[in-house]
Amino acid sequence: MSGVLETMLHSEKNAVCCKCKKSVSEAELVKRYFICPECHAYDRIPPRARIEYLTDKDSFNELFCADIDADPISFPGYAEKKAASRKKSGETEAVLCGTARIGGYETCIFVMNSEFMMASMGTVVGDRIASLFEYAIKRKLPVIGYAASGGARMQEGVLSLMQMVKTSIAAKKHSDAGLLFIVCLTDPTMGGVTASFATLGDIIIAEPNALIGFAGRRVIEQNTGGKLPESFQSAEFQLEHGVIDGIVERKDQRDYLTDVLSMHAEKWGVKA
Amino acid sequence: MTTEITAYEKVKLARSSTRATTADYIKGVTDKFIELHGDRRFGDDSAVIGGIGTICGMPITVIGTEKGHDMGERMARKFGCASPEGYRKALRLVKQAEKFSRPVLFFVDIQGANPGAGAEERGIAEAIAENLYEFGAVKTPMLTIVIGEGGSGGALALSVADEIWMLENAYYSVIAPESCASILFKEPSRASEVAEYLKMTAPDLNGFGVVERIIGEPSDFTDDNAVAKFMSDLKVQIAEKFAQLKKTSVKKLVARRYDKYRRIGKYTEL
Ligand SMILES: [Zn+2]
To answer: CATH says B7-259 is which class?
Structure first.
């Protein structure tokens, strides 16, 4: 089976760095974990590529991928916007869930996709994540979550807001079963996702320089009337303020996760 | 009773400064109330009132966001925009209620959590998340009444409960209609139209199964007699609900609470 990374490695295409806007070849990006060779910015990784970097070869088994196109309050323009996101990303929603092995350890994993409507959380995203926690409880598996989000999805109204409760209480149930939840916060993780499951991990790490916060910078600046420092709401800022356990570079994440999993392995049996 | 008013007119009513605030409700529905301060971590949030009291003789814990009425009071209350300390005080008092098997009553009236740099520095997102996480499994009856504004995550973190009631002109929304209009349509002036789209009124939420009861409100909150009658009716409704919830085993209560939220947008059966 040839994966996404393999395909991109042989691609002739170029991508544009999100930060310095310079053109970078896809092949080069893949070799560098999607870190810009020019300015060293962490670019967004497509979720399937992310999973390939982190998990043992061909071990990912996708779950809860039923194609549900929810528009529960028939919000004007939502169907079109989502259709465009679906077409562009080739995914049905803003989160990818499944089981996979990391360093030989069986885990449940979810990866949010910031290219899909800013990885905002609507009912389908909430349902997939809650379902994954419940699935993990049944099989006594740890959950590894890669968070990214602009927040709750406005176009599903208060039903999106309620997904914050749904995912948080599912995480609690998983925790009460004595199971491990590791979260990695990636750029950007904001709003209702930061204020729910994303900050409820036993261990919370972040990628260097990722934007992590609740309210947007502009809203805070308007409210306080002052200009905020460049580093405000960065992963480094969150580390300094005690919100996260550490910052882990992309190249080290698989080993980091494997080490943490190994220290909890007795909880759910021996290494596969 | 008001009839046939638009969603945005309700939003304006919900924000009106003449409306009863949490402090008025506490006065109106409890026999006795003792305010308890502080989160034991950093400070005391004046935007959140919490304490213990009795309702028809039954000890309860009451927590709510307080906006204040006149400008001075509103400033002192930070317009009811709760900070991390407010959410952590609420968590402390809810855990205390659980310890003593006291029902918890929330009053929600908040435009949104405090959007300040200090709130971010002290982990506002984590404070909200922690409350959602804990309140879902608290082993005591919980009831929320949205009395005015139910503004997004800031309201959510003081509202996870067995039942949610809403005043007929209150709103509960993922985002303020003005902000939504400005983000999605680049026109804040379309707020009125967007308020309809967002389905944020009490009947909407009742239809979604998020809200269990809609509370009719006095046509004029400055009419003392009408408000006194309203409060005494509400008091009876609350006391009856708690008496009923107390008859349910806590295990069942917690399982039902989990289900209530789990069902909102459920597509997958395991
Ligand atoms: Zn660059």
So the answer is: alpha beta
pLDDT tens string B131-189:
999 999 999 999 999 999 999 999 999 999 999 999 999 999 999 999 999 999 999 89
Span B87-106, pLDDT tens digits: 999 999 999 999 999 999 99
Q: Do A220 and B122 touch (CB under 8 A)?
A: no
How much is the ipTM here?
0.97
Q: Tell if the CB–CB gap between A199 and B121 is shorter than 8 Å.
A: no
Contact A66/B270, CB-based, under 8 Å? no
Please give, rounded to a whole number of angstroms, the shortest distance from the CA of B269 to a CA of chain A: 8
Q: Which of B88, B172, B77 is nearest to B125 (CA)?
A: B88
User: Chain B residue with minimal CA distance to A168?
Assistant: B133
Kindly state the tokens that stand for A267.
């909880």
Q: Domain range for residue A30?
A: 1-43
Of A66, A162, A215, the CB nearest to B264: A162
Q: Do A59 and A182 lie in a common domain? A: yes
* Whole-structure pTM value: 0.96
Number of domains in chain A: 2
**Are A199 and A244 members of one domain?**
yes
- The burial class, CB within 10 Å (0-12 / 13-18 / 19+), for B227 is middle
On whether both A72 and A142 belong to a single domain, the answer is yes
* Chain-chain contact of A215 with B172 (C-beta, under 8 angstroms): no
Please give the Cα distance from B255 to A218 (Å, whole number): 40
Residue B92: how many other CB atoms lie within 10 Å: 17
The interface residues of chain B toward chain A in range 198-217, judged by CB-CB distance below 8 A, are 198-200, 204-205, 208, 210
Question: What are the boundaries of each domain within chain B?
Answer: 7-259
Which of B42, B126, B205 should be substituted to probe chain A, the one whose Cβ sees the most A Cβ atoms within 10 Å? B126
* A11, A157, B100, B171, B204 from B195: Cα distances, Å: 47, 10, 41, 10, 12
Asked if the Cβ–Cβ distance from A157 to B174 is below 8 Å, we say yes
